[in-house]
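Quarterly update from the structural biology core.
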Amino acid sequence: MPSYSKITLIGHLGRDPETKYVPSGDAVTEFSVAVSERTKQGETTTWYRVSAWGRLAEVCSQYLHKGSLVYVEGPLVAREYTDREGKARTSLDVRAREVKMLDRAGDREQAGPAAGSGDVDMDHVPF
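Predicted structure, tokenized:
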């Protein structure tokens, strides 16, 4: 039987998205999303690394910015790497399949050109 992994996040970008292009020419945009939870003991924040590929990566790069409120949905992907001390580590990252901007239109206008200006209707960006 096949298996499937999917996570849904709603949170704020911790930094501006960074876009790279792989040798095939596909765009890859990476950003971090902070998800906060309030409990009786206080507030805790969990950070998630998110990557978007192809056209979704290009749209994220163009319209998202530090502080943007986003909905992200996609599978968790295990990524192995070596840290600065030479230890093998594993990171669980989210490979975005769907991203929706949840900022109000007024919030996007105040964010400046990186958040979208011109003749693009921000509430109907083709994700």
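Residues 48 and 60 are 16 Å apart (CA to CA).
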